[in-house]
Amino acid sequence: MSLGHRGVLPVDVTDGTVDLTLLSNNLEAADGSQVTLLPVVVEDGHVVPAGGTITVDLTDGIDSPRLVDNQTDSEEILGTSGNDQLNGTGDNETIRGFAGDDQINGNGGIDLLLGGGGNDTIAGSAQSDFLDGGADNDLLFGNGGGDVIFGGSGNDGLYGGSAADYLNGGEGADTLYGNGGLDTLIGGAGDDIIYGGSQADEILGGDGDDLIFANGGEDTIIGGGGNDTIYGGSQADQIFGGDGNDLIYANGGDDLINGGNGIDNIWLGGGETVVLDATDSGYDIINNFQLGQTTFVVGDVNTLSFADGPNGAEIYQGGNLLATVSWQTASTFANNVNDIFV
User: Fold this and answer.
1) Gap between the Cα atoms of 124 and 105, Å rounded
2) Phi, psi at residue 147, to the nearest 5°?
3) pLDDT tens digits, residue range 146-194?
């Protein structure tokens, strides 16, 4: 069925599905209808391209509207306050779910996908998409392409793809998966879980007690505020605990580690590790120290002193405790100052 370009044709669909070729500016359909947008129209026996920009507004009052979009020009698709299922095409589109638990699929093209309120599931495509879950607990999948994904408020799940993605959880206890690509992963406020991918990622936990896994690649990890638990990967990582009492596992690789403020517990890996241990408040507990492999950056080595404590060798600078090194004695450091400290 086609709608002439000079008028508006009301269509009442009470059972089944109807395909409509839209030539006019307005389309009316009853509750329960499925509307399909086609890329071409037939007018007077001729095929005419359906150019321009189409905005589809699924009016409030429909409980679970469903839109299947085959239009090949740019569109804006608007959901309702209900639970919508909105599917784009291979073109560049803006899809807004608004309130309700929506399912939004960009399919192809460079899309802007906005969930709004409700627990939404949003999936991008192989192109570079922008996804924003909005309020409540959302699942956002970038899939392929260099995507930008915002979780918004709520406890969200953000999944990057194989390209270089930007993921920001926002407020709430979020879970972020970088997967492949050179990703930027930001937990935001809340107690987040962040998984880096196979390449060199930049990971920022933000506020809250975060759990961070670097996985592969030469990563830069900043815990931020809160008592974070950070696992480095097998390659050369740079790990900054930030504020709070952090637990840091360097694992393998030639790492650079700065626990930051607070009482941090640092487990060194098997590589050549540089520990920045100056100017911060609090002290570090260093485990798996290896003479010849571990270097401490302390600023002025002339102000250092050492003592045997109940939990290992204690390193002081100007009377302030910098670190306790487990399973070591003070003499190890006193006799090797120039080899250990810079």
Assistant:
1) 6
2) -95, 155
3) 999 999 999 999 999 999 999 999 999 999 999 989 999 999 999 999 9
Mean pLDDT of 6-33: 43
Confidence of residue 72 (pLDDT cuts 50, 70, 90): very low
How many C-beta atoms surround the C-beta of residue 319 within 10 A?
7
* CB-count burial class (<10 Å; 0-12, 13-18, 19+) for 237: buried
Long-range own/partner contacts, residues 288-293 (CB < 8 A, 24 or more apart): 288/326, 289/325, 289/326, 289/327, 289/328, 291/332, 291/336, 291/339, 291/340, 292/339, 293/268
Whose tokens are 């815990």? That residue is: 223
CB 155 within 8 A of CB 141: no
- φ, ψ at 24 (rounded to 5°): -100, -175
Q: Say if CB 291 and CB 340 are below 8 A apart.
A: yes
The whole-number pLDDT of residue 277 equals 82
Per-residue model confidence (pLDDT) at position 56: 52
pLDDT at 115 over 50: yes
Dihedrals φ, ψ of 124, to 5°?
-85, -165
Q: How far apart are CA 287 and CA 325, in angstroms?
A: 6
Q: How far apart are CA 329 and CA 212, in angstroms?
A: 32
Q: How far apart are CA 111 and CA 114, in angstroms?
A: 10
- Residue indicated by tokens 């309702």: 80
Predicted confidence at residue 73, as pLDDT, reads 52
